[in-house]
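Board notes, transcribed. Complex of a protein with glutamic acid.
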Amino acid sequence: MPHPIVRFAPSPTGAIHIGNARTALLNFLYSKKHHGEFILRFDDTDVERSKEEYAEAIEVDLAWLGVVPDRVLRQSQRFAFYDEAAQRLRRAGRLYPCYESAEELDRKRKRQQARGLPPVYDRAALTLSAEDRASLEAEGKRPHWRFRLDPKIIRWDDLVRGESHIDSASLSDPVLIRADGSYLYTLPSVVDDLDQKVTLIIRGEDHVTNTAVQIQLFEALGGAGAAPHFAHHNLLSSASGEGLSKRSGALSIGGLRDQGVEALAVAAAAVLIGSSTALHPVASLDELIKSLDLAQISRTQTRFDPAELAALSARTLHGLDFEAVRERLAAHDIAGHKAQPFWLAVRGNLTTFLDVIQWWRVVDGEIEPSVEDGDGEFLADAAASLPEEPWDETVWAAWTSALKATTGRKGKALFHPLRLALTGRENGPELALLLPLIGRIRALDRLSVRGA
Ligand code: GLU
């Protein structure tokens, strides 16, 4: 599909989670892969629940993930278009007023269920005469408006699920406008998708039924063939198997960011989990695009395991080039000629990015050297035999082989006290790489700390 126009259409009613990020990224990466356009549309017709601060936070979360929209729309600014579309549907006899209360509808459904029938709206309102309606309105009843579905099998070729169909007889005529005049999501979405010439809708499989209804709406408003293509991806659940919701805050993108999870790991997990491509770290979204294949998305719900994401995040860090992190390091005052060799030395030991702070202190700041009982004399010998600068990565081997010869120590007995004194830690990056960054003055200072 050349130059597709796609969109991600969250309702700004809470923080987006990894499942929403999946929808956003599948759309965004698809648009990039095929040189198309990506629209961010806020479905904020529900003015009670939609909040500007949620919309802003969603843009921040998307930007963090690298998802940058070509256009941003807000449905709350477009009511005139929806009113006009509703008017056209009324004139065409496709939108009809209904007066049943929620309780009446509930009673009807229960009666149908008791008789083993599907709970499909019986279209009783279609039989109301003009006088019936006038008298209901005289009683103060306000109508809600339903879209009259055409009786037919609605078909589409889903880019994830393949040939799909729903018999409209199994569906109730959907309510498009509530009695208070507010719009449900169904109509505005179609009006905007038509207006913005959206060519492909990638969204969660919880929307499959909406798709059947909306295909008929696309055709009612835009003519035969006006419906775009559809792709319904599987949904993610939490590790314990519950669905994710914006309101619960579970696995929110902001929460993952605060825990120090790498954005590229979140993106890779969001796209690859629940597909036939194994989860793997990527160095950029461009690399992730190569693994994007809608047809490979599985059709079953997938559990999302935060532990797997944490591991992927660490592996992502281990592979990042200096250029990819230069600015992030500078934000922590890690800059200058040492910054690049420092990054290359420590990246393989990071669990989260913020671990760089402690390692930078090792090479450029103050630490508490650690000396075990009985090592004091050895460290004094080590200090005395530290080669003169300039140093490079060979100095460690030269120094320790000389020490081995003079002290008779080898293996752990040789290396471990040096690591403890020079870094204050039991484990860490290769000392051959760290030592030249620590430098002779700092090294001497740390080795000269007297143990017991
Ligand atoms: N606002 C809808 C949602 O968040 C959009 C669904 C769609 O993509 O059409 O589920």
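Residues 322-364 form one domain. The first helix runs from residue 18 to 33.
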